[in-house]
TrEMBL record, chain A:
It catalyses: (1S,2R)-1-C-(indol-3-yl)glycerol 3-phosphate + L-serine = D-glyceraldehyde 3-phosphate + L-tryptophan + H2O. The alpha subunit is responsible for the aldol cleavage of indoleglycerol phosphate to indole and glyceraldehyde 3-phosphate. It comes from the Bacteria. The gene is trpA. InterPro entries: Aldolase_TIM, RibuloseP-bd_barrel, Trp_synthase_alpha_AS, Trp_synthase_suA. The keyword Zinc-finger does not apply. Tetramer of two alpha and two beta chains. This is Tryptophan synthase alpha chain. GO terms for cellular component: cytosol.
UniProtKB/TrEMBL annotation, chain B:
Its EC number is 4.2.1.20. The gene is trpB. This is Tryptophan synthase beta chain. The modification N6-(pyridoxal phosphate)lysine is found at residue 104. Its cofactor is pyridoxal 5'-phosphate.
Amino acid sequence: MTATTTGVGEVLARCRAEGRAALIGYLPVGYPTVEGSVAAMRVLVEAGCDVVEVGIPYSDPVIDGPVNQEAMSVALAGGARVDDVLTAVEAVRDAGAAAVVMTYWNLVLHRGVERFAAELAASGGSGLITPDLVPDEAQDWLDASDRHGLDRVFLVAPSSTPERLVTVTTACRGFVYAASTMGVTGARTSVDSDARGLVERVRQVTDLPVCIGLGVSTRAQAAEIAAYADGVIVGSALVRTLGGEGELADRLEALRTLTAELAAGVREGQR
Amino acid sequence: MTTHTTDSAGTDDLVPVEVERPGRFGAFGGRYVPEALIPALEQLDEARQKAAVDPEFQDELARLHATYTGRPSILTEVPRFAAHCGGARVLLKREDLNHTGSHKINNVLAQALITKRMGKTRIIAETGAGQHGVATATAAALMGLECRIYMGKVDTERQALNVARMKILGAEVVAVEHGSATLKDAINEALRDWVTNVSTTHYAIGTVTGPHPFPEMVRDFHKIIGEEARAQVLELTGRLPDAVVACVGGGSNAMGIFHRFVGDEGVRLVGVEAGGEGVESGRHAARFAGSSSTPGVLHGAMSYLMQDRDGQTVESHSISAGLDYPSVGPEHAHLRDSGRAEYRYATDDQVMEAFSLLARTEGIIPALESAHALVGAMQVGRELGPDGLVLVNLSGRGDKDMHTAAAWFGLVEEGTQ
């Protein structure tokens, strides 16, 4: 391992010590270009993101809504590769935040689970979020993440049974990703009330931090969730901002503004 | 799971066989889906296992097959076509004569019954050629379920007649414009719908792929094809066939007819994939033949998958929308790797030749999907020679493909369709 890994668990613990939730921002590598996406991730860190969720564009992103899917299509059409993700991870780490990769499982499988884990650790990545890999199918990844000291973040959902919550959270390291609602990614006007109940249910079975994702787009929503969750994950709203009309420099500024708003939101929601 | 063994006399002895892990076929299968769907898959698995031993469910399904589907489907011997198959005797299992025109109705009637047993009121499905979509819309109409069908935009255009049929049956048809706008993208969209509406909705996957229990469940709802065919062949000829041939997209009709013969070691199981414009062209759906095809995960299952150097899905191509899919059912992957079944492919040119040949020699117009199996039968028949006996699953009828065929053979002037 050549890089110094910033563990997402450490970052969340630091935020918890400050009495606030963490802000976790998602962007896919390669959107609008590889260089543009790396610049955008740096902006996220500068404007207040504690953790950056680095997405790998994928041809069949079944849990992503139209905004993220379109961004991934643009990235792939522009030639984005899995290799580029490691570059982005290094950039996020150098900017001072924890980088956790969000990926559909086939991309890791195809590269080789052991190879991917070794490369991610070497580039300073904290770990993986795997939306289509449940612990039941993840033995190779559980072993590799142990060998390389990587976090592994699995998802829980409002539909998860008490037994499933135990199964999933037992396998998690770093944090637990709680999907706020049944559905795909995308900004919503209100975050489902299921989210609070789900966080309470997760807390009954684990001491790991619980972060809420899917649907968050505004400062007010961030503040609302920060009152009861350890982290607020924002994706589509950032992607949409980055994908607006005009020069990239202007869009990066808009991204900076939105991120700063969300960062203020998580602080307003102090417990 | 049970399978069966058969002695040379063809008696039926069902023998339980242990599987390594539920939902796995060797290294293939599994359940690679968002956590949000796991409870629904567990509910489905429990419901279908209860149904499998519930006489009431079995009686209802049998009644529907007898009075609605038109089962048992007949066996047709095709001697004039067989003259082009090395003189081997060729028998067609006529799934094309089922209500709605293909084998697909076997599966959806059963899944619709299970939908109702689970207390769900809405059924969704994906479709490529439209056969599964039409069958699902039909079952939904019959049983009073709300129905939405996802179909790639490209496929809605080449299968416009089936789109109209689905709408007449009361289904909502959603044209998917993402990606390659074909079957795989329709599945993506159906999965998104299911994640969002899983409390009220059942996703009736149309083939033997997807997360466990779908590959096993869909196969079990189609195994009636092989059970009937095996008994019919024995009655007609006094022996088992030398080869059973079927086309393989996702692979549901093939698994349906293969399953009852897996234990018959002397019977060759031959799957025919879509070779499209030729495997070397890159425009094909031959998952077992193409150099880009290696084991991977798509749509919830581990199987052979056409993918690029990063693991991104490579777009497939076939003249038949129903075979235009970059992966294949995991049980086929296992049958292939274990050597129990053999897979070959037919190009679009070969398929259209076989399509025309069956029409002109026997008065039967097959679906383009099924015409792939006919190419396989011609090849296998020539390998077997005059003493050979080949059973072909004619999985669907060709009405839906008239537009494509008419254009291919130059039977219509441009702009008249």
